[in-house]
Design a protein that fits this description.
The structure is a homodimer of 355-residue chains. Helix content of chain A is 41%, strand content 23%. Chain A contains twelve helices and 14 strands. In chain A, helix 1 links the parallel strand 1 and strand 2. By secondary structure, chain A is of the alpha/beta class. Chain A has two domains: 204 residues, Isopropylmalate Dehydrogenase (3-Layer(aba) Sandwich), CATH 3.40.718.10; 133 residues, Isopropylmalate Dehydrogenase. In chain A, the strands form three sheets. Chain A has a ten-stranded mixed beta sheet with strand order 2-1-3-12-11-4-5-10-8-9, sandwiched between helices. Chain A has a two-stranded antiparallel ribbon with strand order 6-7. At the A-B interface, strand 6, strand 7, helix 6, helix 7 and helix 8 of A face strand 6, strand 7, helix 6, helix 7 and helix 8 of B. Strand 7 of chain A pairs antiparallel with strand 7 of chain B. The structure holds 3-isopropylmalic acid (2 copies). Chains A, B: Pfam families: Iso_dh.
Chain lengths: 355, 355
């Protein structure tokens, strides 16, 4: 029996999480397993209730769980709060407290959604399948920061900092993932300028020695942001720092044209993981049943695969999603001519039926 | 009479600079002006000669000039050198010594090259014209960096740091540029995480008060990397830090599909400027006459505009380039079916003829 802490969060978060829980239920029935799910406040809604985006009660529950399922956090309501009191601070604290240092963000272009990509057909070819492995609990997100008064204003600073171990462990995750894929790792850094990037590059080189079958390539971050657009099919696994990963994984997502479809997993060394859609809380469409629940549903598939070792069940969900798409059902964000428009709940039901 | 220090640099640098000098010559004849140009070693070639990518002689000449024209630097030959001895270190020292804090990188899709964009026609529409204003002499490029030994390896760090004044002056450049364009500024930061970004955002807000006609929008860097692909026409002027500008300006360049066409200017408060193509030294095609000289030629146009206040002459060059393209002439990097392939020197000659 696995324990899952469920954090619906803000905006469309609760709506998409609801559909994901229906799918999880269907898997329970099909496989005769039992998941213990419980819902906790997190993000803006938790600020409203307790003044804290990641309240003690939620934290305790997350630390005792085998997996955490997160919807989305944030919204204009909480944007004016000081940095340390915002929903985002809760997200950082959640990641750090769980120590889920490896953020896996697959950017996959599903065959039936091929022409949703903003890129020309000849660039997309048969489809895209890039896995961004982003370091998630280090770097400039967690280094010392502050500001000082000067004669004419302020000086403000943030510190990008990485240790050999932090780089080693994330590199291993990337190489392990590449071994199950096309055996190519592109490590992205700015080693022509940054000392932390030079340590990154050396350390990745070291780790690579244990993976003679994997081709390793280094790329500067500015070039990577170009190459993703010019020729995304050259990539298999991209491994990079927290900050560069934030930028490049979002860029890679957008290449699929359907960010409403993209799941993510954040892992540490045991099987505990945090699972969330790549998209945000979309406060503008919250409550309208327009949200696409597939990213969260596919995040549940990743949970089954990585935290519960239920590969078959994970595949069931992924196949069900593909089959619903093939039948022509679309939420508004991925709607195209000749397809059948459905709302959030209907999309969830369709996936459950397929399972 | 203006003094121009010319730094051809490495790889294709000398070839493209040669063509740009021919064009400068044509302008001298047409307008009866006199430019004093002199060539100095810089980058890898300077390392080979003197051990220093930015030798004292070059530095002295640059500091005495009204403008500096740079080709490109770097190549595999110098990649193994330690950070402070590499061509890139020379580039940073050059920018800092000239104090050219405002890097203007227009990403323009020229009408005759419209279908070179990797983006679909409906996204590109009538064309793209985004100006990225990148802070060039501050941020993590120039903050304290280092590494320390630990029990199990190292810890390496770099510091992102900005002062109110540094942000103010670059914001002014962006707003001034927007006043001459579509009156919209998008300031890109990561204010939900970084303290330096929060100071950035506050300061830009302050500067905006002096430009009531300009619409200011703030955008997180991860979102900006997506929006550039999803809907690049929403942007007019983007202003951002050195590091984010490095990434986003390259991404924006690639959207045009013809990075061989893109010039840049780096300016300070008086009219002195550094002008260089956005593309790199392309060692793989050096010496083959395949390089596209148009980015460097268009950089000369920017020099005439910003450093010498010769708007008509700048337009002459830009019109000449457009007219050569309209006639169907293409270097290999922008070659398309039915067009006429020319080499580096022929392309330079064609532009000179038009002037
Ligand atoms: C909300 C924000 C703090 C977060 C990040 O930068 O990590 C988000 O952009 C993400 O990528 O999950
Ligand atoms: C070569 C490198 C140091 C440089 C930079 O990062 O500034 C380049 O990428 C650029 O954008 O001019």
């Amino acid at each position: 029996m696995y324990k899952i802490a469920v954090l619906p969060g803000d905006g469309i978060g609760p709506e998409v999480v609801n559909e994901a829980l229906k799918v999880l239920n269907a898997i329970e029935r099909k496989y005769g397993v039992d998941f213990e799910t419980a819902i906790y406040p997190f993000g803006g809604i938790a600020i409203d209730k307790t003044g804290d985006p990641y309240p003690a009660e939620t934290q305790e529950a997350c630390l005792k769980s085998d997996a955490v399922l997160l919807g989305a956090v944030g919204g204009p309501k909480w944007d004016a709060l000081p940095g340390s009191k915002r929903p985002e601070a809760g997200l950082l604290a959640l990641r750090k407290s769980l120590n889920v240092y490896a953020n896996l963000r697959p950017a996959i272009l599903y065959e039936p959604l091929k022409n949703a990509s903003p890129l020309k057909a000849e660039i997309v070819g048969d489809g895209l399948d890039v896995l961004v492995v982003r370091e998630l609990t280090g770097g400039i997100y967690f280094g010392t920061r502050g500001r000082e008064k000067t004669d004419t204003g302020y000086k403000a600073y943030d510190t990008e900092i990485y240790s050999t171990e932090e780089i080693k462990r994330i590199a291993k995750v990337a190489f392990d993932a590449a071994m199950k894929r096309k055996k190519k790792v592109t490590s992205v850094d700015k080693a022509n300028i940054l000392e932390s990037s030079r340590l990154w590059r050396e350390t990745v080189e070291e780790v690579a020695k244990d993976y003679p079958e994997v081709t390793l390539e280094h790329m500067y971050v500015d070039n990577a942001s170009m190459q993703l657009i010019k020729n995304p099919r050259q990539f298999d696994v991209i491994v990079t720092s927290n900050m560069f990963g934030d930028i490049l994984s979002d860029e890679a997502s957008m290449l699929t044209g359907s960010i409403g479809m993209l799941p993510s997993a954040s892992l540490r060394d045991d099987r505990v993981g945090l699972y969330e859609p790549v998209h945000g809380s979309a406060p503008d469409i919250a409550g309208t049943k327009k949200a696409n629940p597939l990213a969260t549903i596919l995040s549940v598939a990743m949970m089954l695969r990585y935290s519960f070792d239920m590969e078959d069940a994970a595949r069931d969900i992924e196949d069900a999603v593909l089959s619903v798409l093939k039948k022509g059902y679309r939420t508004q964000d991925i709607m195209q001519d000749g397809m059948i428009l459905v709302n959030t709940v209907e999309m969830g039901d369709l996936v459950v039926e397929e399972i």
